[in-house]
Amino acid sequence: MGETLQSPRGFHDILPPDIDTFRFVTSTVRDILRLYNFTEIITPIVERVEVFERSIGEATDIVQKEMFVFTDRKGRKLALRPEGTAGVVRAYIQHKLYAQRPYHKLFYEGPMFRYERPQAGRYRQFHQIGAEVFGPAEPLADAELLKIVSDILEALKVEATLEINSLGCAECRPAYREALKGFLEGVSSHLCKDCLERKDRNPLRVLDCKVEGCREATKEAPKMVDFLCQECREHYETLKKLLTEMGVDFRENYNLVRGLDYYTRTVFEAVSPKLGSAVIAGGRYDYLVEQMGGPPTPALGFAVGVERIALVTEAPPLKEKLYFIIPFGDVIPYALKVAQRLREEGKRVEISYRKGGLRKQLEFADKIGADYAVIVGEDEMREGVVTLKDMSTGRQEKVKVV
């Protein structure tokens, strides 16, 4: 017998019953997004490497260390997508969606790929469902997006803290960047190796480090909110006011920067205390469309980590009862008619492929979670009925079905 084949490290199978929770998450998010009039877009899993270098940022860990990159037969460098926003922006520009109407509300769903250490709810292949809004610059759009996040958490019954911050804009961030660099020089002896490299080329990323020593060293770091220009300050204050008026609970986290270079102004995360990590995250990226070759277009979005949020979500039991048909004797055509009639009535039906006595068949029905056993014998066929047995009470009766 040969070696048993295994999936690659970080690539996992989603099996029953976990798939029920997975689908419960994605269908719930989809239903909520449709209520807010989002429409779906499907982008390729594979993109040119430049799509991510120009969007996420060449100095980020994702681009430098975590992308799955390969060369095709003509020598072009391609990458498995590590996140969803960049591909949606590329499609928005390529197909000139900006010329169709003032703004677009799009959502996507699918697998993402990052070569990183597998951890709880995050694998090297993981799934996201995300939403992107192109066009509006007003804080109302930010507030509504955060309301969607709040609605998702409530619908999935997930306990999480919604954290927000503002990263400012191209006018006010440079001054903050210099102030932060100066502060980091003073605490450089307490920073990890990665942050020592980040502090000069991408100092905001130091605030996103998960190493406890770096977290402790940056507790007294300058806050971006103290450097916001008038326009960014008004945007942030209006956002907080709207969230309060809508009843969306939040807290400010001045060290929240997110790990991608394209964010501006609003950034946010829904952090699960059970996991100690974000299950939903996003923000505004007002310069990204222009950086990738499109017209100046304000934009914002978020992504739900499906595997991660599924860890703190429980799918409700299926509403449809399961009917398990047990045929005895030369009754297969009649049993199939019974199954078809039940399915036409919207019932979930499985027909037994096994041979054996009634006791064995009922044991199997119980094992697969059947609510009712539908016993079909030659007597039932002659009378045009079935014997319906309630698996929870043991009560049974003859019922006309066909």
Describe it for me?
With 402 residues, the protein is of the alpha+beta class. It has two domains: 18-172 and 228-310, BirA Bifunctional Protein, domain 2 (2-Layer Sandwich); 322-400, Rossmann fold, CATH 3.40.50.800. Helix content is 35%, strand content 22%. It is built from 14 helices and 16 strands. The chain has helices at 18-35, 49-55, 61-66, 85-94, 139-155, 173-186, 193-201, 212-217, 230-246, 288-291, 306-310, 332-344, 358-367, 378-383; strands at 39-40, 46-48, 69-71, 77-80, 104-113, 125-134, 161-166, 251-252, 264-272, 277-284, 299-305, 322-327, 348-351, 372-376, 385-390, 396-400. The strands form three sheets. It has an eight-stranded mixed β-sheet with strand order 1-5-6-11-10-9-7-8. The protein has a five-stranded mixed β-sheet with strand order 13-12-14-15-16, sandwiched between helices. Strands 2-4-3 form a three-stranded antiparallel β-sheet. β9 and β10 (277-284) form a beta hairpin. The longest helix is centred in the N-terminal third of the chain and has 18 residues, at 18-35. It is elongated, with a radius of gyration of 27 Å. The mean pLDDT is 93.
Task: Record keyword descriptors for this entry.
35% helix; Rossmann fold; single chain; 402 residues; BirA Bifunctional Protein, domain 2; 16 strands
